[in-house]
Amino acid sequence: MSARPGKDEYYLNIAREVCRRGTCLRRQYGAVIVNDDQIVSTGYAGAPRGVANCVDLGRCLREELAIPAGQRYELCRSVHAEMNAVIHASRAQTLGATLYLAGIEVASGLPTAHPEPCLLCRRVIINAGIARVVVQPRGREIVSLNPEDWMNEENEAARQGLAGPALVRVQLGREPGGEA
After folding, report:
1. pLDDT along the chain (180 residues), means of 10
2. Within 10 Å of residue 115's Cβ, how many Cβ atoms?
3. Which of 42, 51, 102, 105 could covalently link to 16 via disulfide, CB atoms 3.0 to 4.6 Å apart?
4. What's this model's pTM, rounded to 2 decimal places?
5. CA 180 to CA 24: how far, in whole Å?
6. Which of 82, 89, 76 lies closest to 150, judged by CA?
7. Is 13 left (phi over 0), alpha (psi -120 to 50) or beta?
8. Rg (CA), the chain
9. Is the dihedral of CA 92, 143, 72, 155 positive or negative?
């Protein structure tokens, strides 16, 4: 009999299952929002309701144009998993909650190497009052990210006259907010 998974592993496994509903041809992401040990919302990356998605169309414009990950989101048909999870919950449910995020590279079937939220999703997570984001980079241990760190990065960028943080990709090797 295998060992009972810890809470973070348990909810990440649920996020991995949620990501299987994704309709992106590049990466499938799933998000689970948990508050007081209760799932309050889930979301996966996919086109808005009633809008054709890339799986059904059989093409991805960003892939065809060789646009790197993290750039030109306006050309993407999908609403990100984190955004969908927040959309489906009330602010009262997300205040102080934990968001679990998991992703799969469609081409290889492997977990994503860097499953951290993009800049826009970070801002949504901050506004939702989510206190912690949990991810597990491919081949690595589970990491807990602190949205307060993102607020500090945003404020530092503002002090420098920038629209947002220059470094969008989180350094997952560090211990954000003292948690890891």
Report:
1. 89 96 92 98 94 90 84 85 96 97 94 90 96 95 95 88 65 38
2. 25
3. 102
4. 0.87
5. 29
6. 82
7. alpha
8. 16
9. positive
> What's at 43, amino acid-wise?
G
Say if residues 110 and 138 touch (Cβ distance below 8 Å).
yes
Look-up of token digits 């992703």:
103
Tokens of 123: 């801002």
Q: Where do we find the tokens 């991810």?
A: 135
Amino acid at 65: L
Check: CB of residue 84 under 8 Å from CB of residue 46.
yes
Residue type, 83: M
Amino acid 1: pLDDT? 65
